[in-house]
Structure formats: structure tokens, C-alpha cells
């Protein structure tokens, strides 16, 4: 009951703050005009006194009287206008302001749940976990770990949850704490590596690469670690080595593994960028479930891989601007990535390094690939 009284009081204060300008009685134009007439009459009287004392010349006084007379006529006309009361306007404004809280409270009473009892966090954390939201489960786990910081099983539970809800830095700390408390395992090291590369926007740096290498030392067949080590080679420009490792992963790992679908897609992306052909795996193509899982798990990683390879190709063409095949690959890469402006810029830069015949061949290639607006 106290809450509702407090809410009603705050609503009243807010409404009065908005209503105050409407409740004040504004001065009318007629009243202002009457006041102006009194001022002008005083000015005329003062002008006559100044003329009588010889302070103002007669000609100057005549001009001043004419100006004051014009102002008197204007004010007199305004004072004589019909008075238009602002009462109706003020009433409409007051009604509009009062209607907002009244309608809001009415809707809440009808559609909301004003009778729902309070749910303090402390009470929600003591009920059946199956009835908790993800945020409440995380709060329960964090409260438990604060009281029991050496509980390895608690860190093992909360680390992947941190990853799923986007708290990557917390996930990294959780995996590092878990490894310190419970020791190394291939799964833990690979999960730490994945959290580190997520923090680095899909780029496999020294820290994440070291974690994946440690995972492979513990289990040389670990699918996640193998996939990301191959990705590291691709980001470093070692496409042949990356393709060989992804192809080996596809041959070795259970076809139901999502990393098989991710490897197939990575091979396809490399082929689109490099213009080569991946070794055909012996087993069947990826299922829809595998592709969906791969997209969920590694879309950002594959995007980072592609950007890295294209950037390297672009940089190499600055050193070897006469490489026609390289320019074709770069143009095709930008078109595949949906960057037609970058592809057009590449063609402009290629003109400086290619002779007229090879440049014409590049433009023909770009037109066949779907580019428009080329001379």
C-alpha cells in the first residue's frame, strides 16, 4: 500500500509541474494596451513641461508629439479590440495533462499486474533453479562463487554462460580460474582460446593460438582446436596449409560434428577468395543442421579470416601491381564480400600497373562478374 501512495504522490507532483504554466493567469493584450496608453499620456505631459522650460525646441517637440500620437492611436485600437478569453485553452491543456496519468493508471490496472507480490532478488535466488531466468541463474552462481572462490565446478558452469550472454572478459577470467583450479584439459584450453579470439574480434593472436596449441598437445584430434589452428594459418596467408588441415579434419571427425560443417564452409570461402579448388572430401556434403551450427559458432571467425586474406592480397598488389591474376582475385573477393566500391577502387589502382591490353582484360573480367559503370 505504501508503494502505491508513493507512486500516486510522485504522479501528482509531476502533473502539477506540467500544469503550473496553464494555471497561471496570463495578462491580456487589452490590459497591456491600457498600460501603454497611460505611459504615452505621461510622455506627452512631460514633453509639454520640457517645451515650457525651453529644454526642447518647438520643432523637435512637434515631431516627438507626432510619434507619440501614432503610438497612442495604435494602443487605443488594441485596447478597443474584443476580449478573447483564454479560459477554454487553459481548460483543454489541464484536461490533456490530467488525462495522461489517468489513462496510464487505467491501462496498467487492466493489462498489468498490480496485485503481483514483490519478488526480491534474494528470494528468487532461493527458489527452484528451473524457474529462474538466465540473469538470475548467473546471479546465483556469482553469489556462490563469491562465497566459494575455489569451487572449480562452479567456474566450469558459469564460464560458457558468460560466453553465451556476451560477457567475454568474464568468460576468459572464468576459464583461466577453472584451469588453475582443476587443471588443463583439451576442452578447457580450446574454450579459453575461443573466448580470447572473440575478445580480439575473430583474430587469432598469440594468446588464443597458444591456448589452441595447448589443447592439441593434450588431444591431437580435438576438433575445435584443429579448426582454429587451421584458421590461424589462413589468417597468416598460409592457405595451402589451412586447406590441408580443414580437409584432414573433415576426414577424421564424426560427420555430425558442427566443426565438419564449419570446415567445409571455410574451404568454400577460401576457394571463392583465392580462386582455387579445395580437395573434395570423401564423405557426403554438409547437412542443414551442420551449416546452421557452423554459422552460429564461427561466422565472425570466418569473416575475420576473409578480411585478413583480402588485406594481404591487396597489400601484395601494391608491391606487384603488374599481377593481372592477383587483381582478378582481388576484384572477385570484393564482389563476393558485397563491396562493389572497393572492387571499383581496385580496378582504378590496377590501371597504373597494367598495360592497356591486360587492363582491358581485367575490365572485361569485372563486367562478366557483374560490375557495371565501367568505361
Give an overview of the whole structure.
By secondary structure, the chain is mainly α. The protein has a domain at 320-368: Methane Monooxygenase Hydroxylase, Chain G, domain 1. Helix content is 75%, strand content 0%. The protein is built from 17 helices and no strands. It has helices at 2-23, 29-53, 58-79, 87-111, 121-124, 134-147, 152-164, 168-182, 186-199, 206-218, 223-235, 239-252, 258-274, 288-319, 324-336, 340-350, 356-368. The longest helix is centred in the last third of the chain and has 32 residues, at 288-319. It is flat, with a radius of gyration of 39 Å. The two termini are 77 Å apart.
Layout of helices and strands:
Elements: H1 2-23, H2 29-53, H3 58-79, H4 87-111, H5 121-124, H6 134-147, H7 152-164, H8 168-182, H9 186-199, H10 206-218, H11 223-235, H12 239-252, H13 258-274, H14 288-319, H15 324-336, H16 340-350, H17 356-368
Helix pairs in contact: 1-4, 2-3, 6-7, 7-8, 8-9, 9-10, 10-11, 11-12, 11-13, 11-14, 12-13, 13-14, 14-15, 15-16, 15-17
Amino acid at each position: 500500500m505504501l508503494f502505491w501512495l508513493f507512486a500516486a504522490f510522485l504522479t501528482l507532483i509531476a502533473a502539477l509541474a506540467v500544469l503550473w504554466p496553464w494555471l497561471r493567469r496570463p495578462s491580456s493584450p487589452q490590459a497591456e494596451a491600457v498600460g501603454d496608453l497611460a505611459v504615452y499620456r505621461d510622455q506627452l505631459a512631460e514633453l509639454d513641461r520640457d517645451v515650457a522650460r525651453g529644454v526642447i525646441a518647438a520643432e523637435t517637440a512637434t515631431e516627438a508629439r507626432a510619434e507619440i500620437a501614432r503610438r497612442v492611436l495604435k494602443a487605443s485600437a488594441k485596447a478597443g479590440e474584443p476580449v478573447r478569453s483564454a479560459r477554454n485553452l487553459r481548460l483543454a491543456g489541464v484536461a490533456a495533462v490530467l488525462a495522461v496519468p489517468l489513462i496510464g493508471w487505467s491501462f496498467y490496472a487492466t493489462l498489468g499486474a498490480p496485485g503481483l507480490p514483490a519478488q526480491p532478488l534474494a528470494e528468487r535466488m532461493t527458489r527452484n533453479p528451473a524457474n529462474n531466468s538466465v540473469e538470475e541463474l548467473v546471479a546465483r552462481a556469482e553469489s556462490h562463487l563469491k562465497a566459494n572462490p575455489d569451487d572449480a565446478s562452479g567456474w566450469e558452469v558459469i564460464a560458457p554462460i558468460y560466453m553465451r550472454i556476451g560477457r567475454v572478459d568474464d568468460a576468459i577470467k572464468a576459464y583461466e580460474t577453472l584451469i588453475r583450479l582443476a587443471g588443463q584439459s583439451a576442452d578447457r584450453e580450446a574454450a579459453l582460446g575461443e573466448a580470447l579470439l572473440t575478445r580480439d574480434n575473430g583474430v587469432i593472436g598469440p594468446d588464443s593460438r597458444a591456448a589452441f596449441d595447448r589443447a592439441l598437445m593434450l588431444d591431437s584430434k580435438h576438433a575445435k582446436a584443429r579448426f582454429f589452428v587451421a584458421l590461424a594459418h589462413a589468417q597468416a596467408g598460409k592457405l595451402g596449409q589451412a586447406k590441408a588441415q580443414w580437409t584432414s579434419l573433415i576426414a577424421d571427425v564424426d560427420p555430425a560434428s558442427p566443426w565438419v560443417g564449419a570446415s567445409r564452409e571455410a574451404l568454400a570461402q577460401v576457394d571463392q577468395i583465392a580462386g582455387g579448388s579445395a580437395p573434395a572430401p570423401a564423405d557426403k556434403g554438409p547437412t542443414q543442421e551442420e551449416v546452421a551450427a557452423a554459422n552460429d559458432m564461427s561466422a565472425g571467425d570466418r569473416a575475420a579470416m576473409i578480411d585478413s586474406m583480402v588485406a594481404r592480397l591487396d597489400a601484395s598488389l601494391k608491391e606487384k601491381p603488374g599481377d593481372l591474376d592477383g587483381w582478378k582475385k582481388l576484384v572477385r573477393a570484393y564482389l563476393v564480400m558485397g563491396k562493389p566500391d572497393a572492387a571499383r577502387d581496385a580496378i582504378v589502382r590496377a590501371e597504373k600497373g597494367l598495360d592497356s591490353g591486360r587492363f582491358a582484360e581485367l575490365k572485361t573480367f569485372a563486367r562478366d562478374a557483374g560490375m557495371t559503370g565501367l568505361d
